[in-house]
Fold these 3 entries.
Entry 1:
Amino acid sequence: MKKPAAAPPASTVRPSTATDRVYDGIYLAVIEHRLAPGEWLREEELAATFGVSRTVVRQALQRLAQDQLIDLKHNRGARVSQPGLDEARHVFEARKVVECEIARRLGGRLDDGQLAELHALAEAEQAADARGDRAAAVRLSGEFHRALARMHGNPVFTRLLDSLLPTTSMLMAQYKVGGGQVCVAHRHVELIASLREGAGAAAAEMRRHLVELERSLTTPPKAARPLRDVFAGYREEASDGASGP
């Protein structure tokens, strides 16, 4: 099954099929908090938005359901998944195992080019946050964590993280105090500093970072926004150029 790239697909990268295009569009809308947990996805509206048939939409929704980003309800349609706070404990337990080991292995071993890449991601995340671009900040936060997994070099860890980050994003959309972004950018800067220090410092800082995120999940679910507003930007982009296959 095709997954979005290590970083969620950019708008400048055209997917190879119509199903990929719908999948990637909905995937990013969920990850970037433009689609709220529990929000219904209507096939007819999605087909019109993406300029595809309802069959293509159903294929994309099936894939998204397999990846646990949406739930398919018999005779009712599809809606964005709503992971509960009980699931958060399991998600963060898994992330601590995977990402603390990644940080431990990378601590004191990253070269100047790798550290520069991490700094660039953290700075881009900070800039997105400063200008109020929440969607970009959320996406860049995920890219930062994926970059660490890629630098570690174990593809199994990368796949595990790819399966955990979307659920984390949905949990943050529902329960994070103040409804803020998934990670706080300056924490990533602190994490980079710990990676320079060595294995112990890096693993400890990663654990502190993940514990802080988990403890921020205390607010009740937020109301979903109208679906017609979610893909407004996509419709504007689509009107500027020809649609893909």
Note: The chain has two domains: 18-82+223-240, 85-215.
Entry 2:
Amino acid sequence: MTTATPAGPPPADLRNPAQLLAALPYLMGFRPAKSVVLVGHQGPTGHDVGLVLRGNLPRREHRAHQARALASRFATGPHTGVSLAVVGGRRRPGSPPPHAGFVDVLADELAGLGVPVIHALWAANIREGAPWGCYAGSDCGGELPDPRTTVAAAAATERGTVAFDSRDELEALLSPRSPEALARRSAALARLPCPDVNEAASVIRAAFKRQHRGEGPPTDEEVVTVTSALTLPEIRDMCLAMAIPAETSTACEAERLWLTLVRETPAPERAEPAVLLGFTAYMRGDGAFAGMALENALAAAPGHMLAKLLKAVLDRGTPPEVIRGLAAAADPMAGLGLEPADFDTEQAV
């Protein structure tokens, strides 16, 4: 299993191995464990963070396959190099860090693509005081600093984001709140006629107002009508446009609504709010959560074309600005009849 984050996550000091390792939870959105993480270097000096990719540590017989799969993701991007980090395992005294054979295979695959390995690092885990080292020599290593003191942590705090303790903890945000409610709503959605655009816009506007007032979980009727409205391409395009500019109060409020709907909507209709959630997270550079949301959309509706498109460009490490045009044409405030006060988070309950 892999997790990709597009270029543009919180900054990290790529020149300092210990700081880079400590920054991984904030680059990934969660604390990696039993993982290999590849951090792409970009920019004229090679000090800018590019694609961040996580994969499972493979068994010996699967090393070559996993190495090819991971390295190929850096074949087309403008990367000047890659730092590798293995997280997990115990280092025996006088021996190289664990999984050295896999690191060699992966470095060879990257070299074959013209992508040099800048750092090859290991850490037992990503916590303050954890031992770390380099595969290049025994004189490189020590104990990790507190991850909360890194540049990436400061940037994440300013953005209002957090690093979860595990991938499972982050993924749990998408779990259904009530399976019984999903069954009721699935039957209701099957009977509901498709709304017209004006009616659908009114439904979405009301949903945002309820979200802003903090009225709690939506009712069956509210979920059914909102989900039905999101199936209209015109409405979906206006909702996509709420994701830009990223991290504004509009984008944040929209992301909260899409997350609520993912937890409250049955398949296959769940794909609509899930793809909106994935796009919004993508635009703010959170590739881990965007990927989970898009996988959720495809699990609900395997043929969903927008979800398949976004997942493909995310897996290639495409920077958010490259696909921003998907949402640039629509004017959600005018089209949905919303006002700036509907997204003023300081006034929210």
Note: The chain has 14 helices and seven strands.
Entry 3:
Amino acid sequence: MTNPPTTELRAVGRVTSPVADPAAAAKQGDEGAPEVTLEFDTAVADGLRGIEAGADLLLLTWLHRADRDTLVVHPRGDPARPETGVFATRSPDRPNPIGLHRVRVLAVDGTRLRVSGCEAVDGTPVLDLKPVLGDER
């Protein structure tokens, strides 16, 4: 594909996290990620209807501090592992740095969701939220 189409995304919120430095963030949500708050724009408040504490959701974020030119990495940043294409890894550095996080809702307060399982750093834009279907754990 010589001229891929341009796609425009609009953030619907942001992550508020005690972790600001990507190097200090957990590699995965279940590896010590702190509880974070997802703060949604009031313009999308109606889209949060039906979300309750205890729900498992798939959170899509824009990893705004990622290197978009990276195509090959050592998985998990471990130089002892062979170089691997980013599409075969969960590396945040990739051409379109979309983060995928399985989170559990701990509390809902208007347009704010307190969640566990999110390793995104403070200020990370939120793109979307979807319910987990079936038993994917």
Note: DSSP finds no helices and eight strands in the chain.
